[in-house]
């Protein structure tokens, strides 16, 4: 199996290299800067105990993400493939593990993330215009349907939607930063508060890294990027640099505008900051900003999620209906349609449980960190098993940095199991349901050979 196994639309009706460096950066920034930065800073401040520790924790989150990005850059440049992690796991651990990952991504990880973001969008859109008792769910389903339709129309429409949403999001966040730092300085925010005895910096890092999650989606667009071997690494470095800078500035604005103690006790830290500056119009502004932010993250997550479904269909006949790449639109339309159907089912689940966002966090977290850990381990396996493969980029300080990355993944897997509820069990059971499907697929293939 060649490391150069990628796709060329002109020859085979599969993905073309349409995406530029700026497109990739917009996708990654759009995925990562979602709802987290508007929710998690208060939790981090509550555990940190001082202004300096708050900023150091967010800076550390950027460094940890950078370590992971270096590992992914080696994998993505050596094995540019639309299947991303699915492809790395297949080469490392075989078709069975790869199938379970693709099944988990299709039914839990990616679709759960889409719906999680959709519920956040629905919650904030409801504050602007309420649509009845199930307003949040209606907005969530409508946003999923609209963004999926835009992506089905074609890659150009999908990427331009993402670029504009990411630009609006970053500009809005920078405006919050400027206002927080200049309009309403808080004289007490510069006085550190002694760390409380109950403060837990490890728990704070869980929230920080949740807010940084999503940069790994670069693996799924590697086959569609111009100048892959150079731009994959550059897109990851630029994206994480931009995200880290924005996160540090926005937390500095929260600290300056509200003070650490107010920030730590806030239930909606961004809304409280803007309400302090502009009153209710400020709260309305932040609601609009969060709505735009979640739409950007949703669009990017929808865009990359269908790519894994397409890769799954290439290897398993049970899902071959998703294996057609539409030449005229340069999109896997059937993969998008299945993804949106599963997402609608999860919207119904979130509506029934009345948990929405919380249900989706529980549902996705343990499964996500399990396979994130396996992707880190695959770097070691492929280095040993396929030493002859050309690696345009190699992780510096190997094996120390990859081991560090795997250690963080293992810690977050543990934390997600400890701190989640019933939703986690549902997610695990859904992944386990893929095991009989794997055996059924093998049985079908044997019958066809016979």
From TrEMBL:
It comes from the Bacteria. It is found in: Membrane. This is Amino acid permease. Keywords: Membrane, Transmembrane, Transmembrane helix. It holds the Pfam family AA_permease_2. It comes from Nodularia harveyana UHCC-0300. The chain crosses the membrane at residues 21-40, 52-75, 96-122, 134-155, 167-186, 198-215, 236-255, 283-303, 336-357, 363-384, 396-417, 423-440. It is a multi-pass membrane protein. The keyword Acetylation does not apply. The keyword Membrane applies.
């Amino acid at each position: 199996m060649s490391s150069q196994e990628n796709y060329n639309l002109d020859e085979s009706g599969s993905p073309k290299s349409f995406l530029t460096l700026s497109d990739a950066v917009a996708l990654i920034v759009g995925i990562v800067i979602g709802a987290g930065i508007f929710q998690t800073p208060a939790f981090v401040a509550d555990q940190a105990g001082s202004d300096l520790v708050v900023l150091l924790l967010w800076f550390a989150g950027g460094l940890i993400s950078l370590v992971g990005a270096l590992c992914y850059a080696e994998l993505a440049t050596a094995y540019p493939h639309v299947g991303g992690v699915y492809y790395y796991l297949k080469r490392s651990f075989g078709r069975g593990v790869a199938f379970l990952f693709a099944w988990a991504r299709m039914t839990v990880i990616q679709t759960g993330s889409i719906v999680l973001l959709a519920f956040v969008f629905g919650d904030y859109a409801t504050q602007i215009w309420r649509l009845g008792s199930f307003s949040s769910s209606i907005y969530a389903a409508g946003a999923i349907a609209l963004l999926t339709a835009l992506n089905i129309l074609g890659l150009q429409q999908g990427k331009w939607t993402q670029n504009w949403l990411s630009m609006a999001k970053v500009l809005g966040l920078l405006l919050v930063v400027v206002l927080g730092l200049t309009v309403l300085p808080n004289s007490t925010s510069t006085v550190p508060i002694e760390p409380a005895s109950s403060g837990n910096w490890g728990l704070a890092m869980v929230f920080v890294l949740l807010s940084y999650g999503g940069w790994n989606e670069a693996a799924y667009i590697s086959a569609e990027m111009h100048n892959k071997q150079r731009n994959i690494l550059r897109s990851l470095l630029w994206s994480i640099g931009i995200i880290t800078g924005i996160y540090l500035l926005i937390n500095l604005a929260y600290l300056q505008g509200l003070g650490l103690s107010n920030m730590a006790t806030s239930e909606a830290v961004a809304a409280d900051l803007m309400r302090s500056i502009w009153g209710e119009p400020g709260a309305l502004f932040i609601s609009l900003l969060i709505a735009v932010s979640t739409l950007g993250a949703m669009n990017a997550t929808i865009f990359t999620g269908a790519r894994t479904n397409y890769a799954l269909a290439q290897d398993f006949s049970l899902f071959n209906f998703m294996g057609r790449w539409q030449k005229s639109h340069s999109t896997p339309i059937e993969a998008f349609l299945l993804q949106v159907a599963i997402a609608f089912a999860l919207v119904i689940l979130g509506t029934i449980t009345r948990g929405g966002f919380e249900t989706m966090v529980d549902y996705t977290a343990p499964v996500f960190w399990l396979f994130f850990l396996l992707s880190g381990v695959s770097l070691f396996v492929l280095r040993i098993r396929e030493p002859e493969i050309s690696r345009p980029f190699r992780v510096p300080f190997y094996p120390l940095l990859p081991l560090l990355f795997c250690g963080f993944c293992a810690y977050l897997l543990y934390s997600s199991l400890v701190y989640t509820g019933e939703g986690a069990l549902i997610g695990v059971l859904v992944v386990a349901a893929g095991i009989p499907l794997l055996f059924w697929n093998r049985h079908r293939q044997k019958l066809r050979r016979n």
